[in-house]
Amino acid sequence: SSNEHKLNFKKSKEACLSYIQDALLQKQWERAAEFLTYYVESLEKDYSRENIGPSEMIWRIGTEILWHHSQSSLKEFNCFMEQMKTLGVKRYLKVCLEHVFHLLCNGQINEAYQNLTLAESWRFGEQTAIQDKEMKLIQAYRGLLDYYSWSKQKNILLEHSEDGFSDLAAEREMHGYFRKAAVNLKEIIKIPGVWDIFVKCYVDLLEFYGDHNEARQVLNEYAYNSKFPANPNAHVYLYQFLKRQGESKKSLLSALKILHDIVPSHELMIDFNTMLQKSKKRKKRRLGLEVIFAALDYAGWKENPKAWSCLARQVKQIVISEKHLDWIKQEWNSRKDWWPAFHFSRYLAKRNWQENKSLSYEKALVAGILLGKGCKYFKYVSHQGCKAQLKRFRMLKKFVNRHNPVYLRISG
Fold first, then answer.
1. Of residues 316, 319, 345, 330, the one with CA closest to residue 287
2. Which residue among 78, 220, 321, 390 is the one 20 to 30 A from 194 at the CA level?
3. Which residues contact 412 (CB under 8 A, 6 or more apart)?
4. pLDDT tens-digit profile of 109-168?
5. Cellular component terms, GO, for this chain's entry (predicted)?
6. Which residues, including other chains, have CB under 8 Å from residue 357's CB and lie 6 or more apart?
7. pLDDT tens, residue by residue, 27-48
């Protein structure tokens, strides 16, 4: 009966998809390809009876298989993607974008550009308006490739100018790429979202032609417009731009302060700490200590020599002056239960000594101040340094021993 046929088809389809999923999870691409072939063949008779066509499923699974299959070729992938474009109008632009990404990954820049141009001219009744965002993405990536062409042409012209040559036709071509890239890149970054690569390229274009005010406006909008999602990179780009423009220290610190609030483990926290330490204002130096302590809370910073050097230098200055010991105490109170095992174990002392003696020196100084002369890390490193007859380690040992009362005050 018709109902029985539908039920059997549904069971067969679900079983086949289950086998495909199992093959994908086990990275058995050949096996997955076989089951997908059976799946597609079985749908040819019953496709019209399905309320929702499985074209998206075939597209997603097929793309994954072809990407990893050992015998897959670019020609086969291109053929498959062209077939997928005709299966579903609603997904046409998404398939086009994925096709373009694959071409770019394989170095097919011109082919990718042609596909984007064709996609941009696509029209299909009401679907054109519904897929407005996808169309803007198509245009944006075309702008990105125009930027790529502009950048290549710019570098060629810069090389020629060094040799004393000038090429007006090449300059006009470069300006043509600039105009096309700028129009499309400017449009996409008006839409709230994360558009890092597009913003960077657009700002690069503006800076090259001396439009610094527009570049500043774009970066400020990207960083501070509440409609855009919180994005650490937006503040990084703004800081880097301000630095290139030779802006005031106040502006640089303001940009980095927001970045610190969002991502206290960002690599630019070294720059932030350095600037704060140089300040004459007590409040900023206090913040500098907070910044470097916060950065070292993260595993990625455990063996960062610059970070430990920054902390060691500031801690040493405070200990010598005996002013603001309460700053250290406040930072240490929330860390004294877990930093010793996280940073100052005997195992880490051995490893740091073997791999980077400068790092072990900075860490030992901090460990000696925070945990006293009985600290395992400090005892091991200072002993090894004195044993190796390294003068700075002998001085380190004397310094910590002399200021051991500071540890008692910090530990309470």
1. 330
2. 78
3. 329
4. 999 999 999 998 887 766 666 678 888 999 999 999 999 999 999 998 888 776 656 678
5. RNA polymerase I transcription regulator complex
6. 385, 390
7. 999 999 998 888 887 776 554 4
Terminal alpha carbon distance of the chain: 85
Overall size of the chain counted in residues: 412
Q: Closest by alpha carbon to 233, among 254, 252, 258, 212?
A: 258
| Token pair belonging to 91 | 């997904």
